[in-house]
């Protein structure tokens, strides 16, 4: 097991190295950093001086090393559009994205698990069939269109919930501003969180349903019934527990795509998070922000994958010997 | 897909093709298709939408790109059945007075074109790399599969966004209008190749050790011909399923990127672009500009998804 984990960590480091290399090449060679920083009236001598002081004349390997060292200390250079350090820009918007992702993950789990158990237990009830067909429609609707439909229904027509922004936020310490402590903040997060979590919810529901159908056929469930245990404890303790391994894996991996899909949801709801920042960077070819975002998301994904891999081995004892040897 | 029968002369060939048709008419595939009403409906819808998009210049009542046909005075007319509607515009008009139905038909054309092209690109790239990976093996295999694994860590939409952004950074100076669609196709295709490569590699590993491949190798046929002529036809079955499901995904991805404003330029509006334009008018009550293109997109994707689901079940011998 130790060998397996250390191999995984080595693999994660390789991935991070490759992403850092791509990110550096982008940062250094797509667009000229000097051109982006100075005006038209700057003389060639001044440009050369700036080039020298930025270290752009050093060997590429030295520059790469410096870039990686900077990135480890959250120094990603200055944004071309905003003329501010990229780390500050991202840091200021990180809480909004993380709160949105967290809220939508909670929504997806809180609804997806019970719906999955229900549809697994009552295969032929009309409610199960409805859940399943609605989920198929849900998968076919693009995230941004679901958001638009929600805004049209709940903000424009019914006027129940706000359609943009975070509402009132409270400052917690110097790094974090939260929307969870005010009523307007909580109202503002409902629509974006549901929009973002809907796809994950249907995924979890279908997964749990499939797993439940399989687990219910196994011997230990039959035995639990034979012992005369009440249905509820058979279903929720003996059966649900055994469906958890794939659910944890998928949920973990989905956390990554929640962060990616947050770009879309943030755009629809004008949610002031990292996603909008990244999108503006893509539109305006603001390479330092793109490079930093690439590194940051890669880091988050690699860490999540690593944790999921390790959890897998910890939770399922059968995998320990097999994978350890492989 | 292929039959390994030896080459036949003319009359025998027509005999064989007739029996192939007869075989198809009697096959499980056709039977399972006709017995599922939802699938037949999905197939009719898909075919209908594709034909309507293909023949948009003939079918559509107006040409939204022809400035002579649009008038700003006709802007934001509601669809038929509402107050102030105009019988000429079945689904109403957008902010510039363009007929929405025509806009949707022309937009679907671009969405489908980008969808098909990027699926074709992803499939060719993925199949080639998968074939090479499985057939050659060794270090080549390890490198290709490692890249695939790393890429699989990232969601396709994020990759497509990134590639699009980088491509625009590199080709910043060229004419955006003409190239945007190709850059978009390239970025979507490049973010979807992994699935094909992994599937094809898996089947190639199995086929490679079968006798017909060994026989071909023994008589000295070059490796690349064996790969293309002998292995490829036998690994294509699952690829068809992936391609169908990917078509739906590619259409969604294109729409999403265009909605985010990084996809096709607004002079050639796809469904996603139309929705983005309509989104600005949602609050002033002109809901149809965003909702109708969105519904068209949803119906198209749902129909393709249903077809893909059916194809997956029908081609999977385990479920029979």
From TrEMBL, chain A:
Can you quote a single GO CC term? plasma membrane
Task: For this UniProt record, give its keywords in alphabetical order, as a comma-separated list.
Answer: Cell membrane, Membrane, Transmembrane, Transmembrane helix, Transport
TM annotation in the entry = 9-30, 100-118, 130-158, 178-199, 247-271, 291-315
What the entry lists under InterPro entries is as follows: BPD_transp_1_N, MetI-like, MetI-like_sf
The protein's predominant localisation is membrane
Residue stretches in coiled coil: none
The highest taxon in the source lineage is Bacteria
Q: Which residues form the ABC transmembrane type-1 domain?
A: 94-312
> Which Pfam family, any one of them, does this sequence belong to?
BPD_transp_1_N
Q: Where in the cell is it found?
A: Cell membrane
- How does the protein associate with the membrane? Multi-pass membrane protein
The record's Gene Ontology biological-process terms are:
transmembrane transport
Similarity remark: Belongs to the binding-protein-dependent transport system permease family.
Q: Which protein, by its recorded name, is this?
A: Peptide/nickel transport system permease protein
Species lineage: Bacteria, Pseudomonadati, Pseudomonadota, Alphaproteobacteria, Hyphomicrobiales
From TrEMBL, chain B:
Q: Which residues cross the membrane?
A: 38-60, 110-132, 152-171, 178-195, 239-262, 287-311
Q: Where in the cell is it found?
A: Cell membrane
Pfam families registered for this protein in UniProt: BPD_transp_1
GO term, biological process aspect, one? transmembrane transport
Question: Which PROSITE patterns does the protein's record reference?
Answer: ABC_TM1
Tell me which UniProt keywords the record has, alphabetically: Cell membrane, Membrane, Transmembrane, Transmembrane helix, Transport
Say yes or no: keyword Transport present: yes
Describe the location of the ABC transmembrane type-1 domain by residue ranges: 108-308
Q: How does it sit in the membrane?
A: Multi-pass membrane protein
Tell me the CDD domains matching this sequence. TM_PBP2
Superkingdom per UniProt: Bacteria
Q: Tell me a GO cellular component.
A: plasma membrane
Per its UniProt record, what Gene3D superfamilies does this chain match? MetI-like (1.10.3720.10)
**What family does this belong to?**
Belongs to the binding-protein-dependent transport system permease family.
The family database entries (PANTHER family) matched by this protein are listed as: ABC TRANSPORTER PERMEASE PROTEIN, OLIGOPEPTIDE TRANSPORT SYSTEM PERMEASE PROTEIN APPC
Q: Please report the name of this protein according to its UniProt entry.
A: Peptide/nickel transport system permease protein
Organism whose genome encodes this protein: Pseudovibrio denitrificans
Q: Identify the taxonomic lineage of the organism of origin.
A: Bacteria, Pseudomonadati, Pseudomonadota, Alphaproteobacteria, Hyphomicrobiales
């Amino acid at each position: 097991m130790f060998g397996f984990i250390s191999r995984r960590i080595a693999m994660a480091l390789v991935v991070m190295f490759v992403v850092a290399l791509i990110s550096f090449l982008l940062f250094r060679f797509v667009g000229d950093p000097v051109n982006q920083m100075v005006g038209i009236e700057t003389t060639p001598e001044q440009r050369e001086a700036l080039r020298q002081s930025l270290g752009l004349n050093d060997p590429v390997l030295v520059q790469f090393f410096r870039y990686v060292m900077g990135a480890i200390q959250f120094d990603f250079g200055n944004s071309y559009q905003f003329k501010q350090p990229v780390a500050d820009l991202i840091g200021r918007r990180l809480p909004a994205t993380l709160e949105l992702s967290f809220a939508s993950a909670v929504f997806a789990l809180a609804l997806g698990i019970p719906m999955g158990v229900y549809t697994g237990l009552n295969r032929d009830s009309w409610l199960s069939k409805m859940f399943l067909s609605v989920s198929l429609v849900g998968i076919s609707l693009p995230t941004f269109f679901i958001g638009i439909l929600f805004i049209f229904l709940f903000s424009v027509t019914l006027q129940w919930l706000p359609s943009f922004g975070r509402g009132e936020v409270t400052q917690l310490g110097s790094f974090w501003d939260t929307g969870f402590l005010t009523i307007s903040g909580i109202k503002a997060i409902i629509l974006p969180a549901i929009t973002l979590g809907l796809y994950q919810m249907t995924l979890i529901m279908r997964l749990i349903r499939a797993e439940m159908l399989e687990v219910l056929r196994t011997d230990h469930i039959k035995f639990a019934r034979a012992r005369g245990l009440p249905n509820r404890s058979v279903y929720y303790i003996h059966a649900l527990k055994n469906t958890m391994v794939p659910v944890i894996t998928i949920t973990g991996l989905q956390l990554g795509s929640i962060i990616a899909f947050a770009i879309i949801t943030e755009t629809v709801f004008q949610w002031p998070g990292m996603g909008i920042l990244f999108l503006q960077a893509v539109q305006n070819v603001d390479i330092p922000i793109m490079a930093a975002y690439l590194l940051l998301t890669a880091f988050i994904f690699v860490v999540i994958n690593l944790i999921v891999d390790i959890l897998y081995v910890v939770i399922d004892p059968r995998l320990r010997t097999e994978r350890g040897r492989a | 897909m292929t039959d390994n029968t030896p080459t036949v002369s003319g009359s025998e060939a027509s005999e064989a093709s007739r029996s192939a048709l007869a075989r198809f008419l009697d096959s499980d595939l056709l039977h399972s298709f006709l017995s599922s009403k939802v699938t037949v409906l999905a197939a009719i819808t898909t075919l209908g939408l594709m034909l309507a998009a293909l023949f948009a210049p003939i079918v559509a009542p107006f040409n939204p790109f022809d400035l002579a046909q649009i008038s700003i005075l006709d802007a934001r007319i509601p669809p038929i059945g509402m107050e102030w509607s105009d019988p000429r515009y079945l689904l109403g008009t957008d902010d510039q007075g363009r007929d929405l139905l025509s806009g949707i038909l022309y937009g679907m054309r671009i969405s489908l074109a980008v969808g098909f092209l990027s699926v074709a690109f992803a499939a060719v790239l993925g199949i080639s790399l998968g074939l090479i990976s499985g057939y050659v093996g060794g270090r080549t295999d390890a490198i290709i599969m490692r890249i695939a694994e790393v890429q699989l860590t990232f969601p396709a939409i994020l990759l497509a966004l990134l590639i699009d952004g980088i491509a625009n950074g590199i080709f910043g100076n060229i004419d955006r209008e003409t190239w945007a669609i190709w850059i978009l196709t390239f970025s979507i295709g490049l973010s979807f190749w992994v699935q094909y490569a992994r599937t094809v590699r898996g089947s190639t590993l199995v086929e490679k050790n079968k006798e017909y491949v060994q026989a071909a190798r023994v008589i000295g046929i070059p490796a690349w011909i064996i790969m293309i002529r002998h292995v490829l036809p036998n690994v294509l079955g699952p690829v068809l399923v992936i391609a169908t499901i990917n078509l739906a995904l590619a259409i969604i991805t294109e729409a999403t990127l265009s909605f985010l404003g990084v996809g096709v330029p607004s002079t050639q509006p796809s469904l996603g672009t139309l929705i983005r334009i309509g989104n600005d008018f949602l609050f002033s009550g002109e809901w149809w500009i965003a909702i109708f293109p969105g519904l068209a997109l949803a119906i198209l994707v749902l129909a393709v998804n249903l077809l893909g689901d059916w194809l997956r079940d029908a081609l999977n011998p385990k479920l029979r």
